Amino acid sequence: MPEARFVRTAKLSSVAEYAYAAVLPAHTQIVFCAGACPIDLTGAVVEVGDVAAQTRRALANLQTALEEAGASYSTVVRTTIYVASSRQSDLVAAWDVTHATFAENEPPSTLLGVAALGYANQLVEIDAIALVE
Questions:
Q1: Which of 2, 61, 68, 123 suits 88 as a labelling partner, its CA being 20 to 30 A distant?
Q2: Pick from 118, 130, 131, 128: which is nearest to 37 by CA?
Q3: CATH class held by domain 5-131
Q4: For the segment 33-78, what is each residue's pLDDT rounded down to a tens digit?
């Protein structure tokens, strides 16, 4: 399985607990995942009003997409987490769940608050880039 090299450096903030970049090996297949949403098989948003629970569901849906594409959490090289909120506590709630999920392989990530997401009552969406295993 190809492995990415995650760049962490003392030349940037020591407060940030994440990789600043990922370097991919040559000739690898890359998986670009669409935003994973906290929806069930009927397309209904689950856990209305609960950022952490919606993050867990979005990550579970992301895992399914990754597996179908021949990848896994361990081969993710980048994530973006969107939270429909301007409250930092909501962003932290989503980050805490995501951080725990990727603890063994924490890729570079961007976390941001947005005004709205695609489904009614949707608070979280997570996209990812991964390598094929």
A1: 61
A2: 118
A3: alpha beta
A4: 999 999 999 999 999 999 999 999 999 999 999 999 999 999 999 9
Backbone torsions φ then ψ of 74, nearest 5 degrees: -70, -15
Give the span between the Cα atoms of 52 and 95, in whole angstroms: 9
- Alpha carbons within 13 angstroms on the beta-carbon side of residue 97 total 21
What does the chain look like in DSSP terms, one character per residue?
Answer: ---PEEE--TTS-SS--S-SEEEPPTT--EEEPPPB-SB-TTSPBPSTT-HHHHHHHHHHHHHHHHHHTT--GGGEEEEEEEES-S-HHHHHHHHHHHHHHTTTS---EEEEE-S--SSTT--EEEEEEEE--
Q: State pTM to two decimals.
A: 0.88
